[in-house]
Task: inverse folding
């Protein structure tokens, strides 16, 4: 059990927690974009409230907290590994591709986290009736939340490239 | 003009295009 006193073991544990939270987050993001949103028009109108009132709030709970814990564990991991500042400045001047790759991944992930908490959730709260809004405001909120969700789906592809590329490709170079 | 993000397929294509840009930028910025 000597590994328990090994600093790199605990850094690894935070990497594991970061990945688990990230799967929770991006799994729900892709559920919304690949499954729920394209299916909604095919659902009979009388059944749609079941999705909006029961599935959506639950999915958004795990989605937004997945985003929060992914960011938190990721920042702790980068700090523990000693490259937080190098990653924030995407390796400029460091002469190290690793910091550039993980840094771009981190910035894209941070933009996505901001979208979740400050654009998607406030607008979804209007759609779900958590915050009061007129029917016109609800329609506008649905559009804004949907586009922000699509932006995050688009960004998730290069974000994961940077995240996975950094430790797995450059590790051997 | 339609917003490409209204289409899931175009969203994924844009994501792949951005990935290619990121893949090129990594060695350029990383030096």
Result:
């Amino acid at each position: 059990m000597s590994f328990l006193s090994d600093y790199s073991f605990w850094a690894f544990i935070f990497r594991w927690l970061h990945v688990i939270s990230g799967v929770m987050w991006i799994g729900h993001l892709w559920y919304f974009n690949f499954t729920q949103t394209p299916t909604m028009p095919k659902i009979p109108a009388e059944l749609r409230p079941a999705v909006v009132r029961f599935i959506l709030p639950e999915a958004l709970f795990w989605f937004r907290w997945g985003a929060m814990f992914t960011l938190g564990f990721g920042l702790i991991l980068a700090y523990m590994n000693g490259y937080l500042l190098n990653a924030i400045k995407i390796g400029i001047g460091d002469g190290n591709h690793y910091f550039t790759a993980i840094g771009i991944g981190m910035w894209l992930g941070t933009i996505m986290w901001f979208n979740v908490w400050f654009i998607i959730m406030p607008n979804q709260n209007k759609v779900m009736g958590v915050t009061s809004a007129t029917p016109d405001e609800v329609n506008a909120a649905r559009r804004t939340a949907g586009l922000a969700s699509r932006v995050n789906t688009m960004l998730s592809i290069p974000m994961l490239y940077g995240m996975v590329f950094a430790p797995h490709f450059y590790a051997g170079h | 003009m339609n917003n490409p993000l209204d289409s899931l397929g175009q969203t994924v294509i844009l994501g792949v295009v951005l990935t290619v840009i990121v893949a090129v930028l990594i060695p350029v910025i990383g030096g």
Observations:
- Chain A has a mean pLDDT of 94.
